[in-house]
Specification:
Elements lengths: L2 E2 L2 E3 L2 E3 L6 E5 L6 E6 L3 H16 L9 H17 L1 H12 L3 H21 L14 E9 L2 E5 L5 H15 L2 E5 L11 H8 L6 E3 L4 H10 L5 E5 L2 H12 L4 E5 L5 E4 L5 H13 L11 E5 L3 H13 L19 H17 L1 E5 L17 E4 L6 H4 L6 E7 L2 H9 L3 E2 L1 E5 L3 H10 L4 E4 L14 E2 L2 E2 L6 H4 L2 E9 L3
Parallel strand pairs: 1-5, 7-8, 7-10, 8-9, 10-11, 12-13, 12-18, 13-16, 15-16, 18-19
Antiparallel strand pairs: 2-3, 4-5, 6-22, 11-21, 14-15, 17-20
Helix pairs in contact: 1-7, 2-4, 2-6, 3-4, 4-5, 9-10
Length: 483
């Protein structure tokens, strides 16, 4: 029997005002496993009202001390650790990723709570000198009511990466998870309630972008929107937020270069390049989807990546043998399949992996891993974000050419560089227009370091010390000491 999920508004579990619901499917089988409230503007308005009231009455900030805010987040970290396996399985059922990857996500979620729990007591102001007759106090205050709008590829991580710093900063929050993946989002209120979060601070409203997301962005009672998702919706949010001059941070997509120089440690570069595009089924904003390989090792590298790719085992993420799960939805599967068709007309198909054989998975949203070789950097499959397990391999000769090719894209989220030459590695890292550059690695995004995009990959930074900054306002208090 499918589970009927509910919204969490002002400390209560509630249905959508008009009782509407939509189905949640298990991407490995296509079966309906739950339903969630199809919320609309009325539901969103209730959540906003409650979050606004809680903030304006000062029930979270400033009446709860920094220590208490920090302790609540630290307790939440422990609860997530206690429930680690259950949450990981839930995440796999919801979005399809292999359990081993979901376990990694949930472990990082626990750490995010811990990390920002520590930050609650470490947000300091400043005292700039303004002469003998006055005292200037620069204090940091929460930005207010925050709307967090999140995607489906790392459902719980993307939510906590916004929520934990927002709560540490003293904001109240409304979370609107992706319609495909509301499971773990709805666990967050239970976890934070047990950790001692006062009523009214956090609200979770499920539903679709236009009906449940857009009213959050247009509301004059919401101070800030933190969004992760497509570039297209990022643009809509920026425009819609303009009327109320909303603070907006956007974490959008990418078409990240992965550069393999001929002097790279070969095995590590091959393995890392494959993980960079096939991890999480390629549904990763920072996926290394453009693999540039220096001509001297091009054929050998292509063959090694092909071999590594043929060994990938597609299956149900809950099966421990599975190394690649299904895509999140039928829609995403079809979108990626269309790109594979387009790629067939633009480049040479070097590898197409196998679909799972298990008949129980015949309704699942599987797309086998694909490698296109000899891709032109101007081809659509090299320019546009595919968000699936599709690698484009592009040959290059020398540093100048690869820098020009790498930077010739509207996105600028991340990049990877593989070489043994430290000077070349750093020179390349500095010249790449990207928010994160990995040297001899691909994809690590530690909670302690900033994350975000150059160019059209986004605005603002999450994680690390920067990740709390965007949830704070700066206030100057000037004291005249001569009166
Ligand atoms: P999307 O950008 O439409 O959805 C992300 C979130 O935004 C969801 O919670 C959705 O309900 C919400 N949303 C949608 N329209 C909205 C609106 N008008 N106002 C407010 N909120 C709105 O992503 P979608 O359609 O699921 O995926 C499409 C493509 O986006 C993918 O193929 C991929 O290329 C990219 N994407 C990038 C992600 C990233 O991590 N940067 C994550 C998910 C998708
Ligand atoms: Mg969409």
């Amino acid at each position: 029997m499918a589970e009927a999920l509910q919204n969490y508004i002002d400390g209560e579990w509630v249905e959508a005002a008009d009782g509407g619901r939509f189905d949640i499917t298990n991407p490995a089988t296509g079966e309906v496993i739950a339903s969630a409230p199809d919320s609309g503007p009325r539901d969103v308005e209730r959540a906003i009202e409650a979050a606004r009231r809680t903030f304006d009455e000062g029930r979270w900030w400033p009446r709860t001390s920094e220590r208490e805010r920090g302790r609540i987040l630290l307790r939440a970290a422990e609860i997530v650790r206690r429930e680690h396996e259950r949450l990981a399985r839930m995440e796999t059922m919801d979005c399809g990723k292999p359990l081993a990857e979901a376990r990694g996500d949930i472990a990082e979620v626990a750490f995010m709570f811990e990390y920002y729990g520590g930050w609650a007591t470490k947000v300091h102001g400043e005292i700039p000198p303004v002469g003998p007759g006055a005292l200037s106090l620069v204090v940091k205050e929460p930005v207010g009511v925050v709307a967090a709008i999140t995607p489906w590829n790392y459902p719980m991580m993307m939510a906590i990466q916004k929520l934990a710093p927002a709560l540490a900063a003293g904001c109240t929050v409304i979370l609107k998870p992706a319609e495909q993946t509301p499971f773990t989002a709805l666990e967050i209120p239970r976890i934070l309630e047990e950790a001692g979060l006062p009523r009214g601070v956090l609200h979770v409203v499920t539903g679709f972008g236009e009906s449940a997301g857009a009213p959050l962005v247009s509301s004059p009672k919401v101070d800030k929107v933190g969004f992760t998702g497509s570039r297209e919706v990022g643009r809509i949010i920026m425009r819609a937020g303009a009327d109320t001059l909303k603070r907006v941070t956007l974490e959008l997509g990418g078409k990240s270069p992965n550069i393999v120089f001929a002097d790279a440690e070969f095995e590590a570069a091959i393995e890392g390049s494959c993980v960079g595009i096939f991890g999480n089924q390629g549904e990763v904003c920072s996926a290394g989807s453009r693999v540039f390989v220096e001509r001297a090792i091009y054929d050998r590298a292509l063959e090694a990546m092909a071999e590594r790719t043929r060994a990938i085992r597609l299956g149900d993420g809950l099966d421990e043998e599975t190394t690649m799960g299904p895509l999140v939805s039928r829609e995403q599967q079809e979108r990626v399949e269309r790109y594979i068709e387009i790629g067939g007309g633009e480049a040479r198909l070097a590898v197409m992996g196998a679909r799972p054989e298990d008949p129980r998975l015949s309704g699942g949203y599987f797309v086998p891993p694909v490698i296109f070789a000899d891709v032109d950097n101007r081809a659509r499959i090299a320019r546009e974000e595919i968000f699936g397990p599709v690698m484009s391999v592009i040959p290059f000769s020398g540093l100048d050419e690869v820098l020009a090719l790498s930077n010739d894209n509207d996105y600028g989220l991340a990049a990877a560089v593989w070489t043994r030459d430290i000077t070349k590695a750093i020179t390349t890292a500095r010249a790449l227009r990207a928010g994160t550059v990995w040297i001899n690695d691909s994809q690590p995004a530690p909670t302690e370091a900033p994350w975000g995009g150059f160019k059209q990959s986004g605005i603002g930074r999450e994680l690390g010390a920067h990740g709390i900054e965007d949830f704070l306002e700066t206030k100057h208090i000037y004291v005249n000491l001569s009166r």
